[in-house]
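Job type: complex structure
Entries:
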Amino acid sequence: MTSVLRVIEPGLLTTIQDLGRPAAIAAGVPPGGAMDRFAHRAANLLAGNSPHDATLECTMNGAQLVAEAPCLVAITGADFQPRINGAAAPTWTSMFLGRGDRLSFDGRRTGARAYIAVGGGFEGDRWLGSRSTSLIAARGGMHGRPLAKGDELSLAAERSAPAVAGRHLPPGLRPAYSGHALHAMPGPHVRRLDAESRKLLFAAEFAVSREADRMGYRLEGHRLATSGDELLSFGLVAGAVQVPRSGQPILLMADHQTAGGYPVVAVVISASMPIAAQLAPGDAVRFIQATAAEASRRRLTLSSALATLSAP
Amino acid sequence: MPPPRSIQKARIHPLGDTALLAELGSRLDTALNTRAIGLAAALRKRRDVRQAVAGYSSVTVHFDPDQATHESLGAAIKRLAAKRPKMAVPGRLHRIPVVYDGPDLDDVARAVGLSVEAVVEAHTRPIYRVFLVGFVPGWAYLGPLPEELELPRRHVPRTRVPAGSVAIAARQTGIYPLPVPGGWHLIGRSSVKLFLPDSDPPCLFRAGDRVKFFSARRAP
């Protein structure tokens, strides 16, 4: 298919992502997909797509793109201050780009990952049922690698939904990205923490270290002490807070290892994962203990917000 | 007469709001692992289950929170786990040539008090079981390793282990499919491709398969 957008500058790390390949975890392949599923879905819905279409995930700064054909785009997630032909452009809003229009970003104001959707969805290599870029496997998306200068991006499909510019998600319906508080349920091995560490887990403020990527974030500020025999390896999930022997917790994210044997002392609820996805190195983060009922309430809040964007 | 097989009680732990961990036991045990693999296969057939992955002696279940709760699925798992397991189908047998010249081979021999030849003999003796596939694409946890080779992991993990490294730690052995960080002892290398990105599933070994290593000469 012909190109719709061309990459002038790729930014720090821009990859093609969709909702990942959850079935592949049985083969040891990370599930992958957009780190912030809420922003990814919202961008797609604003652009008239299905939530399963692929978007661009820009990390810490934006990509510079030029439209090679008229298209409808939407930018969600982190606020990197988008501009169209130099003029400030809104986030969480569908917008038309004409041929030759240039999309750029001024710089990061809040968050860590912005999502760009295009009406019709981005084309990309499909691997194990998903267009998501897997950097460790060098498969999917743009031939398994981040976008590079000069890449031509094409549409996965001709648009079917009518293109409507100016639709937006009101600020009140967006996740509270500035909060840096993650709701989490106690994990299967929380009792392996000593009393002091158990208190710290749900009370102390941690910081995201420089070792933070799509696989996970190493947290610093406090060490958590665990005891007990080495565990036999078991299947892991995104959101799991693992405590290796060093005591420095690791929060697993979209490209997490699929199995491991460190104690899992907490698991961030699905409704808080979009907030986790927007954390950058140096950010403070706290865990707030949540119940399954509360997790389900918060999940519903997010899905009702997205429902307001679904095509009538 | 063999003792009657005890009914395994599954312990259910939430893993956040969309997954749970069902523990069948805490021993490195072929029978437990067979039950875990069987339970995962049975769970994958359910409409409310998105994916079920067997660990050594547990199953991690990802579920649709609009269709199931920890309680509803937990009850179903306990019913399934109490059933007499089906006769396990023996997995495929892989024969893997290994050049035993790893950077840790001499240290391992010293640490366990054996000659290098005896370490190689011990490592090539068993038919290992693939207990689970995971960690990184293509990695398989194999075991049990003969007791005389049992060592804790390295104090300081390597930041990058070359692909193809054959390694041991505790009662386990495995082959690094990709260059990744690792804390196991490297005793040899193999040229077999474990991560097969253009196949589905994209890995050579599957849970329940059997693996036999044999010592190969250095390539001429």
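Summary: Chain A touches chain B through 44 residues (CB under 8 Å). Residues 181-307 of chain A form a domain with the Cyclophilin fold (CATH 2.40.100.10).
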